[in-house]
## 1
Amino acid sequence: MNVPENLRFAESHEWVREETDGTVTVGISDFAQEKLTELVYVELPETDRQVTAGEEVAVVESVKSASDIYAPISGTIVEVNTALEDDPTLVNSSPWTDGWLFRMRPDDPASVSQLMDAAAYENMTAE
Amino acid sequence: MTELHLSPLNSRHRDLGGRMVEFAGWSLPVQYTGIRPEALAVRSAGGVFDISHMGQLLVHAAAPGIAAAALDRLLTSSVSRLKPGEGQYSLLLNEQGGIIDDLIVYCLNETTCFLVVNAAMVDEDVAWLTRHLPEYVELQNRSDQFGGIAVQGPQAAAWFEKIQRDAGDPQPAVLPPRFGILDLPRRTGPFYVCRTGYTGEDGFELFCPGEFLGLWWDAVIEAGATPAGLGARDVLRLEKCYPLNGSDLTPERTPVECGLSFAVDFSKPEFIGRSAVLQQKQQGPAHRLVAVRQTGKAPPPRHGYAVFHNETRVGTVTSGGMSPVLNCGIALVWMETGHHREGTDLMMEIRGKRFPCRVVRKPFV
């Protein structure tokens, strides 16, 4: 599996990318999208919402099931990927780039480094 | 948990990358490449489904017409009217008129009927039939001996012909007419070809011992059929408003409520559930199973979602999904009479939010 090395990961399969402006971008891994199968709907959070790490913030729905997406860290939602409203399958076709879900401003920038690195995530999903 | 039944096609599913799930005690593929592309392939050309989980029962009596006459007292349709080689959709009801199972009954010959029933209901159907059939009628549960595939789509009949032709059969079999059954016995056992399916497309279902099943599975894929999983099967049947037993049909719901009166022959003097269903037909049911389509961008409808008229809850989704053909959410809804008419605008509640939807004519597609 190709897991980008510049990303951090939550156990619930969200990835986090640190941006130069101090915000972070959040998506779900290739492993997760593959397990979910083709998405038909993505429900994204409201911007300006304050969220705590582990809180349910979004829902992704395939034909067969609805799955919760959790905030990987605590912070404020600053932007959501509105392109997913028209094409939720972007999450399937490009989970690491165009299929991102939302951007957050972390309460504590150091919280990102407490997430798994790419090697650890790859190990976790290799089983 | 008890061990799952494995289909004779199990290794083929794995080779094809099938995503295996548990369904009615069986391990079966929910999809191979994707539910949407598989469903669209069935509508445009054709697909093949593993239906080895379906149950097969034989009902036999020594004298002609006896088995059919006995089934006439247990099923809603008129089994005695079937000629050898014909079949029909039928329902097994309890005394209150509630639906135990929906099935297809075939007249194989003058002394024997063949029933294809839902996988999850085999044991219950057998128990009910055993209890109510007269002792001079023999019931055999053959579910373990039969595997099955459903070849569905506009190309299905052409593929059947081609496979016969390519096999060099000097007298190739011809598909029976709609709801018909053809018995092409092999040395190792029966080989039933039925002109039936659960997708609303033309096609056929084969029921035979596992060894032949694999050959046919390979042959129809070679001819052009797309392997399709349970996910595609479910959304295809929903587009056609074919009910799913256990979700849309339950022992508390009657054929009148579920829009299945076409499968009930009220001219028969007696069958279990008749008086309850007849009374309800005359008085009008309090609930109806209706087709509802989402009219705006919304999460897909799912079993259990509530449907509202203003602030009053008037219905519950029994089956839902995103239609690959229509590209919108579709659902069967258990609706209070009065809100069931085509064109009625309602709201569906999904995770605390309301989304607009409308009662539409069946089927969706």
## 2
Amino acid sequence: MTDFWLNGEKIVWEGDPAIRVIDLLREKLGRTGTKEGCGTGECGACAIHVNGELHLSCLMLAGQLQGCRVTTIEGMAPAGGIHPLQQAFLDSGAVQCGFCIPGMVMAGAALRAKVPDPSERQIREGLSGNLCRCTGYGKIIQAVRSLSLSGSAAEEGNP
Amino acid sequence: MRLELGARIPRADGLSKVTGTEPYAVDLYPPNPLWAGAKRAGIPHGLIRGIDNARARSLPGVMRILTSADVPGSNRHGIIHQDMPVLADGKVRHGGDAVALVIAESRAALRQALEAIIVQIDPLPIVAGIDDALDPQSPKVHEERPEGNILVHARIERGKVDQAFESCAAEVSEVFVTPVQAHLFLETENGLAFLAEDGTLEIIASTQAPFRDRFEISRALSIPFEKIRVKAPYLGGGFGGKDGATVQCLLALAALAVPLRWIKMVWEREESMLAGYKRHATRLHYRAGALEDGTLYALDCRLFYDTGAYAHLGGEVLELGMEHAAGPYRIPHARVEGWCLYTNNPIAGAMRAFGVCQVAFAIEQVIDLLAEKLHIDPLDFRLRNALRSGDENLSSLPAADSTGMQACLRQIADHPLWTGRENWKSSASAHTRRGVGIASVFNAMGYGKNVRDSAIARIELMTSGEFMVTSAVADMGQGNASTYAQIAGSILHQNEGQVHVTQPDTAHAYPSGSSSAGRTTYTFGNALFQAAHELRNRILNRGGMMLFTEDDRHLELRPGCIRHAPSGRELPLSRLASLMRPEERVSLAHFVAPVVEPKPGTYEGLRIGFPHLLYAYGAHLAAIEVDLLSGAISVLHYVAVTDGGTVLNPTLFEQQIEGGIAQGMGFALLEDLLIRQGIILNPDLSTYLIPTSLDLPTMETSWVNGSDNSGPLGMKGVGEVAMNGPLPAIANAFAHATGRRIFQGPLHAERVFWTLAGSQCDQEEKR
């Protein structure tokens, strides 16, 4: 038995602890926002947060989630709302086919948690594990950057 | 936000994609699905001696194992030529041929069964590439073809080529080689199938061509096509690789074997590399000449395209490459001869810039070389020879009114990176070189002559007062669905969110062709433009009736209502809709893309899709740095100026141009699917590299003003044109930086390093 928190909800997985986390999320728990692009840890489409750290769910087994706090793309937006980084992706026109975007949002959010106001170089490095075949990355980088700028501005104005 | 043309309207599909709620085909898990998967040949050429399923069949959870004997129809599919078996019968022609189809209760059982199947194949000698395919002594990939391994042999000719070279003051002769490129969409080929009791076959697939898929399935498996329903949700990328059946026929076959159960098939990444369609490898022999005064005067080229084991759209890819072989220039004397060849390599088919980015590599370096010989500035040389409207192009037809090549080049000419290129060059630090290169690009739009390029748009005023567009053209990420909402909304004066778009479903939409050829917004959009106009007039007319106005003047559509301006009276659209009959609330219109007639005597052997009327144009600039120690090229600035007619949505326009450049930069610097004796050496993402966020520069994109007059929207498709720039622009920048030229792509560090070292590292790679 494996129990963990998924987007704030307690999950008790009584099945095989050796299935991949991505299969657990998508096939067993119906959270299909997390995508599979390669299955070998090369593309980043399956990125999730485990205890606040960026992880690739295609390279983890269900049992490794024991006791962990897991956030997937479905858990990023508050109920009825949207995460500021998701809004920044929309505002920057960063979405084309969109298949890489959940992973990009997870990677961008993980970067911002560590580096609140990243430089363009830091953003490029922070997203370099996530492949996108549509955009050329420019508008995605712009999205993460614009949030950093507005985020830090908001923090300044908010005692 | 009001839906208006020319505005930066956010994508209608943005929110669902960014929150992870948009269901792509691969996200659909019907209750208790069966899993299907193909056993691949693994051997590029050979005769099947036997398929031993005994152990696989005995494994728990394995439901059925099918071979070619179980295929009910012709067992052949294909878009133009039906030469591709659903399951190989007797012979395998490339390593990705499917030889058996397993249907299992779980993915784990499926994997075990696929491993347990033993296929005995007696290898045959391999047709490994272009030279083998041209050798009449080589085995035939398709033994029944009297033409041997030549799929298409064609010629375009104008003027008197052989005499023309005698007048030339400068002449260049070179051979260019381009690699196989993989589409690498992130959502691999996948789908679902269900055969209902009444014999209806439902397919939901990641596909660019839901309507055409029905014919491919129907022919291959003898299922009446009207019994087949195909749905195409948003695709996780396509780029041409999902134009033509991938999983569809295999899924249909599985559903025939196990009716009344949903069957799911998802290709793994390596399977996609092995069995999916690819970009053609080419070898291009160019000879070109110019007059003393800088007039491009003569061209003679021979183009060889390796189409792999099956035709797919190979012949058409070659034809489009031939049509673009002279670049966007006036050349009075030209001969272009092309061969599309069967080999035992992976199947080459449609990919963004469909045969064009290969010839762009060749002609744009040839142009630079001629300019150099004549001591003319390479941009001036291009300007002097670039097509203007009315000029005869390679097809000996007048270039259309919307020919913005000159305007694109002029913007580059004034760019500080171009005017300051010698400063850029001299700014290189130790162990590096810097250079600036340019390329003119163009790309035909639409299917071209002899292929009906039409669309039927449907729009409905729903009882809610909002509108629904029934899209019939798949959206693989280019944003045509969202643009349809924008087009309709602009005519109906509605706000964002008030015009919805359904994704293609052959049961509800009307046949409107594939999502390809830069046509998705143009053809369907122009049909929708008319349908929305008709609906608008009807709504105003019925509204006038309800409001008892004396006529329909002074009535206007507003978001959610109609309004009689003089009296200020309004009628909500929901109210109006409830008073209209269902058929009144629906408007249908069609559009057929214009074609041009080829000129008799100027061509031979080009049958499908030649010539075209409309092209998008562009001028590209790359400023690069070469690391002399490693050979690595970094592109530090990239500029693209595009003529795509009227820009409907600047954000979506930029997305297409930036995306095309990105894929073009992968083609230019990194991507090379290595195939030796029919075997792929780099079939995964750790060995076949595509650009990451660290590999691409910020791109500067702009457009020239202009409008195309062939349709009411004034736009031209720009999905493909940008793909053609990076490889030649970077190759020209490399020459500016180092004085050396590379005629084989990609310009990866190893090739650059050995070129600078003066060694031919990769002669064996010449295909």
